Amino acid sequence: MHQPKEPAFGLKTLGCLLLLVLLELGWSLFSWFHPPIPVLNFHDIAVSRGPRGFWTLPPDRFEAILSRVTALGFQTLDTESFLQRLGGWGGYGDSILLTFDDGYESHLSVVQPLLTAHGLRGVFFVLSGTAPAGRLKPQEILRLAGSGLEIGSHSATHGSLIRGVGELPEAFEARLDREIGETRSQLQKLTGQAIRAFAYPEGEYTAETVRAVSRAGYLLGFTTDLGYGRPWQSRLETPRNLLFRDATPESVQEYLLRPRRELKVRLALDVVVTSLLLLAIAIGIRRRRRP
After folding, report:
1. What is the number of domains present in the chain?
2. Residue 263: C-alpha distances to residues 2, 42, 84, 231, 266 (Å)
3. Cβ 247 vs Cβ 65: under 8 Å
4. What pLDDT score does 50 carry?
5. Percent of the chain with pLDDT over 70
6. Based on the domain organization, do 154 and 281 belong to the same domain?
7. Residues 11 and 113 in one domain
């Protein structure tokens, strides 16, 4: 009695399976050499700051977080090395970027000595306009820069960079140039540093704001969206982990180590998926050769 032949895989099917194997291995290889980079975002480091206290981290908690970062073996980057790691093939490493917004006086009096004591670096996003009470004045910004820490721009006045209702396009563009472009020139002249990075006030930005940041010559723009620095995302919309008053060393550790765990899971899945695909290809080839 005639036995029906087992269906053989066609050449197109085998080709598609092989392509899937290569794409999976290629993506895993890319992920291994381009790991996400954690970015922590701090504001005031003080015991309390009244109605905005939820932004304020107590100094002892801040130091405990720094101790945890160093204990885990993480090395801090500046914006230049951050960009190099995003664009290079450096492999999986324990790198981190520490950022500080709003230019508080505590950044000079509290943060700078603690960073120095722990051998860490940070990027400080300051205001170039008239400093409100409790914020760094030009000579204090200069002292912070003189200690070897990097300065970034947080606009001139910390005002909204979203176009207002009824605001004419020309007026809005002029305001963006003052808040974003002129402040970069002023800070470069004051500190002697190349100001590469901009942090959006209140984390608010639109396509118009991003274009203005690019037009002003910044290489990096930081939001307050939760995430990591990743090579395939826009450099001018880099997310961060915004730390509030309830931040702990344990919560920071979870954020820092999550990509490492996800990568291990992905590699394990790759072994399974690739093995199954190769097995399917082998079965298909065997069936094609069977008379």
Report:
1. 2
2. 51, 27, 21, 16, 5
3. yes
4. 66
5. 92
6. no
7. no
Residues 111, 198, single domain; the answer is: yes
Contact in structure between 102 and 127 (CB atoms under 8 Å): yes
Same domain for 160 and 231: yes
User: Which domain CATH number covers 93?
Assistant: 3.20.20.370
The C-alpha atoms of residue 221 and residue 39 are separated, in whole angstroms, by 12
Q: Residue 245: which residues within 8 A CB-CB, separation 6 or more?
A: 53, 54, 55, 56, 57, 58
Residues β-bridged to residue 237: none
pTM of this structure: 0.85
Q: What is the pLDDT of residues 117-176, one digit of tens each?
A: 999 999 999 999 877 888 999 999 999 999 999 999 999 999 999 998 888 999 999 999
What is the rounded average pLDDT of the residues 255-269? 83
Locus of tokens 């998926």: 273
Paired tokens of 87: 């664009």
Range of the domain at 18: 1-33+250-291
